[in-house]
Write a structure and sequence with these properties.
Layout (H helix, E strand, L loop, with lengths): L1 H15 L29 E28 L12 E32 L5 E11 L2 E11 L9 E3 L4 E10 L1 H5 L4 H9 L1
Parallel strand pairs: 1-5
Antiparallel strand pairs: 1-2, 2-3, 3-4, 4-6
Length: about 190
């Protein structure tokens, strides 16, 4: 009998002591697991855009224009006898030909950040990459919209799958400054 009373008292003593252990969720956070999906999905997540763009543009223009006119005046009769026979003629012609051809190829990678998630789960991304070499800056800026389905397993997206993409390649520094026309050349080109 005493054994039963002692067992009941011991059980009540354990139940009276508050439990200070950590509560665990039923859902395990697998973000550090090798099996977790590491693709970008939320604002602040990063992903890499693989830039592979090429453009070819060709334009040919040809213009010609010509005009001719002639005027004849017979000698005057009567009180207009002082007028002598005369004739005048003129012609004008214009011809211009022009051709332009441009081929560009851009490739590289830029890591961007998700700045907004739209209601349809598309993501607006943007990012800038700046590379300095010998006091010259080479800068790539990208902004666009991507679908979550287009994000590959290695968290990259090809640039041709970026909607409303704005990809800007820019630079500044001594070398880039020498590749621009001077101010006088720009003025003459504007006037003539």
């Amino acid at each position: 009998m005493w054994k039963k009373i002692f067992a009941v008292l011991l059980t009540l003593a354990f139940l009276a002591v508050p439990y200070t252990g950590n509560a665990k969720s039923l859902w395990v956070d697998r973000s550090h697991s090798i099996f977790a999906d590491k693709k970008a999905r939320d604002v602040g997540d990063i992903l890499t855009i693989v830039i592979s763009e090429s453009t070819t543009q060709t334009a040919t223009k040809s213009t010609s224009n010509s005009k001719s006119a002639s005027v004849g005046l017979d000698a005057g009769i009567g009180i207009f006898s002082f007028l002598k026979a005369a004739s005048a003629g003129g012609s004008d012609s214009f011809k211009a030909d022009g051709a332009a051809s441009d081929t560009s190829r851009y490739s590289g990678r830029i890591t961007v950040t998700v700045v907004e998630v739209l209601p349809n789960d598309n993501m607006i991304v943007e990012g800038t990459q700046s590379i300095w070499q010998n006091r010259d800056e080479h800068k790539i800026t990208l902004r666009g919209i991507i679908r979550r389905d287009d994000v590959l397993m290695d968290n990259t997206v090809p640039s041709y799958k970026v909607a409303d993409a704005t990809i800007k390649f820019d630079g500044k520094g001594p070398l880039n400054a020498k590749q621009r026309q001077g101010i006088l050349t720009q003025i003459f080109n504007f006037l003539f």
